Amino acid sequence: MRLRRPEDFRRVRTGGRSWAHPLFILWRLPNGGAVTRIGIAASRRVGNAVERNRARRLLREAMRHLYHQVTVGWDIVLVARSTLLKTDEREVEVALSTVLERAGLLTVNDASSCQASGV
């Protein structure tokens, strides 16, 4: 369920579509499979190694909570921005939910229940 190879990241970034948020950028590309794969990246502009790892952990945890609501058949790359480090886990999850909805990656039934519960 993870993108690991640099070629996969490159393919999604060059051939996919993106949605920007102040905390991160989301890229998506259909993969034609029965599973959605996620890749998370943080460049050196985010900060030192400790800060980059924290940014990746925040995005990974938010995606873990929302993964069951994501439509299958996509490759998704999340690129952390330095502002991500100034937020908490709950704000990251709300932001990710919003961007996934804008990108059309949340299933219809779960998206409405997600909004009703305040996520």
Mean pLDDT across all residues, rounded?
91
The SSE order reads HEEEHEHH
> What is the CATH fold-level name?
Ribosomal Protein S5, domain 2
CATH architecture, by name, is 2-Layer Sandwich
Which term fits the overall shape? globular
Return the domain count: 1
Global Rg = 14 Å
How many DSSP E strands?
A: 4
Helix fraction?
40-55%
Kindly, what is the distance between the CA atoms of the first and last residues, rounded to a whole number of angstroms?
23 Å
Biggest sheet, strands in spatial order?
Answer: 1-2-4-3
Give the DSSP E fraction (strand runs of 2 or more residues). 15-25%
Structure, explained:
It is a single chain. The protein has 119 residues and is α+β, with helices and mostly antiparallel strands. The chain contains four helices and four strands. The chain has a single domain (6-113), classed as Ribosomal Protein S5, domain 2 (2-Layer Sandwich). It has helices spanning 6-15, 49-66, 89-102, 108-116, and strands at residues 17-20, 24-30, 37-41, 74-80. Strand 1 and strand 2 (24-30) form a beta hairpin. The longest helix is centred in the middle third of the chain and has 18 residues, at 49-66.
